Amino acid sequence: MNTSEKPALKVLLCSPRGFCAGVVRAIESVERALAIYGPPVYVRHEIVHNRYVVDSLRAKGAIFVEDLDEVPDSGAPVIFSAHGVPRSVPAEAARRHLFALDATCPLVTKVHRETEIHYRRGHEILLIGHSGHPEVIGTLGQLPPDAVTLIESVSDAANFMPRDADNLAYVTQTTLSVQDTAEIVAVLRARFPGIAGPRKDDICYATTNRQEAVKCVAPLVDAMIVVGASNSSNSQRLTEVAKRAGCPRAVLVQRAADIDWRAFGAVGSLGVTAGASAPEVLVEEIIGAFAQRYAVSVETVSAAKEGMFFPLPRRLRESQAAE
Questions:
Q1: Torsion sign (Cα): 269, 274, 275, 276
Q2: Domains, in order of start, for the chain
Q3: Under 8 Å CB-to-CB from 192, ≥6 apart: which residues?
Q4: What's the rounded Cα separation, in Å, for the pair 129 and 127?
Q5: How does pLDDT run across 202-218, given as a tens digit for each residue?
Q6: Cβ atoms within 10 A of the Cβ of 134, count?
Q7: Would you state the pLDDT for residue 152?
Q8: What is the mean pLDDT of the chain?
Q9: DSSP letters of 39-66?
Q10: Mind telling me the catalytic residues?
Q11: 281: Cβ contacts below 8 Å, ≥ 6 apart
Q12: 142: exposed, middle or buried (C-beta count within 10 Å: 0-12, 13-18, 19+)?
């Protein structure tokens, strides 16, 4: 098809999008461990929720496991994913004398520390988050069973019955919808005015910034594509935010091969963003796929500038400095 025969398509590219500092740190941790120690390097759970990233690391020698029982006593490194792990996991690694490296995002670690502080102060703790998500499992696992109550919705917040209404605190998962979380917190604060919360929001800067960019673009386009995995919380939230902000059609796709072209036949404008664990190469792949069918022009819409950086885990930094 000649360019002149292709229908015009204006692509509004959200900025920021894609990798955040915590994801970059986690991926570089695996790559650095492979470079220093050689394969195999074991990774407990997907290092980040993206099949392309996981498959790329697997091809370099990473072995992904769901439990430490799958890691042999061979001296090979085992890395904990960016989502964080329950305390029982590093304890088990220490008991077995495994060479463990913690790639937990520092902003998730911040939530773990807040939870521990609230517990030491005797607070009854609420965790706003999604059941079954690895980050939530890790945060719940910082404390004894039943020390934290999970709140998933406004309804949960409205129906929660505390042991002591004057001795409550809450923390949140880092990858939630900013608006949904604000609504839940508003219910909790209305019911329990003295509830303690984080000094700075637990929802991370990257989640917030990507949602803000989507809010800017969604009302301006006929459809929105969010590049990301179905098990990526922050990617799912971007899709929800786009729909809520007025985009008539918002879909989550992992890569170009997953696009249902029947859904995009008559679009004249398209928003594109990517979850915090989706690499830019997949964004470029998807825009390239549209360029084969449309006469594409691309404009970037920026909601924030990001310069966040997290250093690698200490043992990898020390090995790097020793070279």
A1: negative
A2: 3-20+206-302 (3.40.1010.20), 21-105 (3.40.50.11270), 107-191 (3.40.1010.20)
A3: 162, 165, 166, 168
A4: 6
A5: 999 999 999 999 999 99
A6: 20
A7: 98
A8: 95
A9: S-EEEES-SSS-HHHHHHHHHHTEEEES
A10: 135
A11: 52
A12: buried
